[in-house]
Amino acid sequence: MSVKKEIIWRVAIVYIVFLLSGLAIIGRVIYLQIFEKEKWLAKAGDFSIKTMSIPADRGSIYAADGRLLASSIPHYEIRFDAQCTNLTDKIFNAGIDSLSLQLSRLFRDKSKQQYKNELVEARKKGNRYHLIKTGVTYNQLKELTTFPIFRLGRFTGGFIYMQESRRVRPHQNLAGRFIGYTTQDPRGNIVGIEGAYNDQLAGTEGIRLMQRLSGNVWMPMNDRNEIEPKDGQDVITTIDVTLQDVAHKALLQQLVSQDAHHGSVVLMEVRTGKVKAMVNLGKDDQGRYLEIQNYAVGESTEPGSTFKLPVLMAALEDGVVELGDTIDTGNGSLSIYDIVIRDDQYRQGGYGKITVEEVFEYSSNVGMAKIITEAYKQNANHFIERLYHMRLNEKLDIDIIGEGSPEIKYPDDPFWSGISLAMISHGYEVRLTPLQTLAFYNAIANNGKMVKPMFVSELRYHGKVVKRFDTQVLKSSVCSRSTLKQVQQILKGVVESGTAKNLRDDKIIIAGKTGTNQIYNKEYGYKSESEVSYQASFVGYFPADDPMYSCIVVVNSPSRNVYYGNQVAGPVFLEIARKVYATSIEMHPALKAGSNRLAEIPYSKDGNREELTKVLQQLGLPLEHKNTSTLWINTEKKENVVSFVEREIIDNLTPDVVGMGAKDAVYLLENAGYRVAIKGYGSVKSQSVPPGARIRKGMQIILEMSFI
Predict the structure, then answer these.
(1) 571 and 255 in contact (C-beta within 8 Å)?
(2) Which of 190, 217, 237 finishes a domain?
(3) What does pTM read for this prediction?
């Protein structure tokens, strides 16, 4: 073959290969366009278009009186489509200066020139989703819609906004663990009311179609959602904010004074089981007391002497003792196998021979151990069954997640021993949470009926009630009528003449039981040479003759060498009872018709003369303010009148603000040039810079209030 023919042959082969390859490509394109068109369009959509969920507005949580406990506040993310279809250069150039100026004035974070440079640069780059600001409030959003360019809307002015929400609590740490929270971590942490009613609060998510831009930024394809979200329901709780605040302050003050590790308080309506206050305060690493854990619901511990009530009730139900029977408690010490049970009075020689009623009122461990071991040593099963019959071994099955499990072991338990009856008789070798203990005492106040603690009364949607919750009865009667009357009597006796007689009050009669017990530690048991921890508690109800509220106070690990229930937990209970009594009209007897008694003249804080005059006149209180012309005055309480005394304020000298409220004191001192710090609440008790000292502008002055 000649060279020419060989070259032509080779060129032909190359031509044929390219021709066949081209035909194959054309054929594949035709096949994809006709037969697999839908498949590849769908895949392309997956990469450039997708649906995103739109969170619904989460429902709010309210107190019983309608005050807000938790709510979602809307905030907005503002973006700018610098290349939107109808935004011409003429429109952009005419409005950019004014827009930049107004953005700078509104947000006060950048200068006009900085905003202008950013927006001009975004337009040069063709940015379709330029971020301007996050965390924008609704009022700011409304103002933005009036700005040049932005007021033209999304398709002409490039104005884009996305709503976000942030959960807020107006009362901050108050009832923190009760309100709770939810998290999105893998463990799905859900706490308190937020967790228990998460499905109702969350609502239903909506759907929005999003388009991917360069830089993996997703932008809504249109202003309307594909599916609109449905708002969550509002939860109306049983909490009374005023009583919650009272309980919080009372417990906090005692925890601080006793340097305790943590404590809890629960206040409940006797007949309904509605929880009106629940406080849980624990010390953090910095020594602050915060709502760290829900101890009232989740901490199951040995209750100590508060458990003597169901123990004695079991004995009374079986008729093995009567309240008038005599028990010899000896010198206050009792040895059973390798343990020694002691009374608090054993160092003083013990109680000797006392009645069963006094055994309970004095909280004699020896007396209770003798009663139970003698009565049930041959029939321990029956004793435990009595406790089970009172529903003490079952959870309350409350709405809030994390309830601790009660433990009352049966005689066939591997850990049952020859001392178990004696230990159980005074609150050891059993475990209950504070709320479970309260529910039992509440049943005694409620004439034997045990009701489930109730945290939520209603669910509402946009103000309309969609569900109401009624009181649930857990057990119609925990004991016989005769036993009930006897234990109601001895619970009053504890306060009248027993371990809690320091809680006697002239106005309100309290019934209840103290508890003091050592806390078991896995490392060293109940006691070691260097470590002994105690739990102090008081649980009861008031008014004793017509119970309206039950309450439990538990203080864990007080460290001031004071750990008895009547000294540590009792005062908190008493303060709460007094405040409840003072604010509950239904607890006060009605005044007789025609009564014309003059109320005692109240004490008044010092302060502004005009404001005090207005308040006292509105209250109809007699006022004496002869020869007082100064703006600031002192008040004096006289027998039948409130008297004003002039208080002189001299320029450049530190004013005397002792006796004033925080509002007036801060006003005076800040106007004088001081920086004011306040410790506590009430009226000013002392000031760090003495009155009459020359003022140094910018200096801090500390005001110590009457209630710390």
Answers:
(1) no
(2) 237
(3) 0.72
